[in-house]
Design a protein that fits this description.
This protein has about 325 residues and is α/β, with parallel strands linked by helices. It folds into two domains: about 180 residues, Bordetella uptake gene, domain 1 (D-Maltodextrin-Binding Protein, domain 2); about 100 residues, D-Maltodextrin-Binding Protein, domain 2 (3-Layer(aba) Sandwich). It has eleven helices and ten strands. The strands form two sheets. It has a five-stranded mixed sheet with strand order 2-1-3-10-4. It has a five-stranded mixed sheet with strand order 7-6-8-5-9, with helices on both faces. Helix 2 links the parallel strand 1 and strand 2. Helix 2 packs across helix 9. It is globular and about 65 Å long.
Length: about 325
């Protein structure tokens, strides 16, 4: 008798989940962005919302929740009802690295459900075109001669950009001021305005300025050189054993019903295959033709977290742990 009751309960729950998935979505979906408007994450979110609503048949409202390098938005999603109506897009470093630099919970991966890779950030370090530094070597030499007087802007604390920037300084034994902004837009404005000597941020924020001649790329943080500046070497080519891969992925609260998660993945996978998305993502240096989903995405994030932890320990940077 008890077995029959258990089976009956399972059938009822399964039928209920199917019914919920068939009705989903029945109202607008909120897509949170943990950075201000205008940056690479925001740009990607808006085109995905635009294209995703065509498949889902509901409005997708982009809501900016800037702060703590994207963690404010992640915490809001983690605390939301797992019904699919509150989701977000974020750089992976907020999940796999930020806890080494900020007093935040280290288990953000466990508090959320990763859905789909929607972009890949490609980073470089730049100066204003009026800068006397024509390459990274000259910039480093200047910083060595002017300890504590050189500032480098980054798009947020606890990001892979911050780690690579600090790793360069540590490798060269130079004292630079790393200035954190809320997103790429702030770094771009400060470099153009001469408020910082250099800035490390995503290609979408600086490609047009390199083309126009208002900014100068000093080095690529990636495995390869940038098409917009093919003559500029990578950090590895310059002798630094460093690369800065960071993905952008879509996620929801932990406990999303599998049927709803599949519905979201299907709709947004279709969105990132549209020409509108491809054009915007390519223009901003975020396009990735091999999106990860499911177990493959989870495996990438867990591996990235482990590799970041090893790098942080090797460099001896990040928050100091209290002795046990």
């Amino acid at each position: 008798m008890r077995t029959r009751c258990v089976l009956f309960t399972m059938v009822v729950l399964f039928a209920a989940s199917i019914a919920v998935a068939q009705e989903f979505p029945s109202k607008p979906i909120r897509l949170l962005v943990g950075f201000p408007p205008g940056g690479s994450t925001d740009v990607l979110a808006r085109v995905i919302a635009q294209e995703g609503r065509k498949s889902l048949g509901q409005e997708i409202v982009v809501v900016n929740r800037p702060g703590a390098s994207g963690v404010i938005a992640i915490n809001e999603v983690a605390a939301a009802s797992p019904d699919g109506y509150t989701i977000s897009i974020s750089p992976s470093s907020a999940f796999t690295l930020a806890h080494h630099f900020m007093a935040i919970r280290p288990d953000l991966l466990e508090a959320t459900t990763a859905l789909l890779l929607v972009g890949r950030q490609r980073i470089g370090i730049l100066t204003h075109s009026d800068s006397p530094h024509r390459n990274l070597k000259e910039f480093v030499e200047y910083a060595k001669k002017n300890p504590g007087k050189v500032s480098v802007g980054i798009p947020g604390l606890g990001t892979k950009v911050e780690v690579i920037t600090r790793a360069i300084a540590l490798h060269e034994k130079i004292d630079v001021n790393v200035v954190a902004f809320q997103g790429d837009a702030g770094v771009m404005t400060s470099v153009l305005g001469g408020h910082v000597a250099a800035g490390s941020f995503a290609v979408g924020g600086w490609a047009s300025h390199v083309r126009s001649g208002s900014m100068r790329l000093l080095a690529s943080f990636e495995d390869d050189r940038f098409d917009v500046a093919p003559g500029v070497p990578t950090l590895v080519e310059l002798g630094y054993p460093l690369t800065g891969a960071t993905i952008q992925h879509l996620y929801g609260p932990r406990g999303l019903p599998p049927a709803i998660a599949r519905r979201l993945v299907s709709a947004f996978a279709e969105a990132i295959r549209t020409q509108a998305y491809i054009d915007i993502a390519t223009q901003n240096g975020l396009y990735d033709k091999n999106p990860l989903v499911g177990e493959a995405l989870d495996a990438f994030l867990l591996k990235d977290r482990a590799e970041n932890t090893a790098l942080i320990e090797k460099l001896g940077i990040g928050l100091k742990k209290n002795p046990q």
